[in-house]
TrEMBL record:
PROSITE patterns: PROKAR_LIPOPROTEIN
Region Disordered, annotated ranges: 23-74
Lineage: Bacteria, Bacillati, Bacillota, Bacilli, Bacillales
Keyword Signal appears in the UniProt entry: yes
Record field: compositional bias (Acidic residues): 40-66
Keyword line: Signal
Polar residues compositional bias, start-end: 23-36
Signal peptide bounds: 1-22
Protein name: Lipoprotein
Keyword NADP: no
Length: 217
């Protein structure tokens, strides 16, 4: 029996070609898979960046909404004169302004009066800013029976309406709740506020917003 060498060599060559094609195909798949991995990683980074941007947008929207809510609340406030001092201010519906003694009023929250802001005013020409500031600090120390005061430096927690100058504020933690003293100048008035708030300081922003509206009658 004669071997057909030509046919055998042809078959062998075809087998080698198929093997080579298979190898190249495998290499191409590996390259393709590698390239796909890079693309997937890039897409992941883009997704993470988008998530961060969305988170910042949500946070900014929350802050903006909170500011709008404060402004909306003050839209409900009514202008009220002090009975004993020469000023007026805008008072929110849940608060009551009462004159306790000459030169000293209290702005109470709710019916029980547990949380309130004491208001004292003087004409700038007659008052002494440095004395008010020093006296305010001594009063805070005596109220909490401590020598440790913390200065309030966060501008969002200070009166900042147009015309307000020389703002200084200190806070102290009493046994039950925080007490904050603020002294500032507004037009012709020197103003001293003392805030006796809840443990969570939940009325602080209201007191500040109303205090900013104090104006000479």
């Amino acid at each position: 029996m004669k071997i057909n060498w030509k046919l055998l060599l042809t078959g062998f060559s075809a087998a080698m070609i198929l093997t080579a094609c298979g190898t190249d195909s495998g290499n191409d798949n590996e390259k393709s898979n590698g390239s796909s991995g890079v693309v997937d990683e890039t897409e992941t980074n883009v997704d993470e960046t988008n998530d961060t941007d969305l988170s910042l947008e949500d946070e900014n929207e929350d802050e903006g909404q909170e500011q709008e809510n404060v402004q909306s609340d003050m839209d409900k406030a009514a202008l009220q004169d002090s009975d004993a001092q020469d000023y007026a201010l805008y008072v929110l519906p849940e608060y009551t302004l009462t004159s306790e003694e000459p030169g000293r009023d209290s702005l109470y929250f709710g019916d029980d009066g547990e949380y309130f802001m004491r208001i004292e005013t003087q004409l700038s020409a007659d008052g002494d800013y440095e004395y008010l500031l020093e006296n305010m600090q001594e009063t805070l120390k005596a109220s909490a029976d401590t020598e440790e005061l913390t200065e309030v430096t966060d501008e969002e927690k200070l009166p900042s309406a147009e015309g307000i100058e020389r703002v200084k504020a200190f806070t102290v933690q009493s046994e039950d709740s925080p007490i904050t003293g603020i002294v500032f100048e507004q037009g012709d008035l020197l103003i001293r506020l003392t805030i006796f708030d809840s443990p969570e300081a939940e009325h602080y922003n209201d007191f500040i917003q109303m205090g900013e509206t104090i104006q000479k009658k």
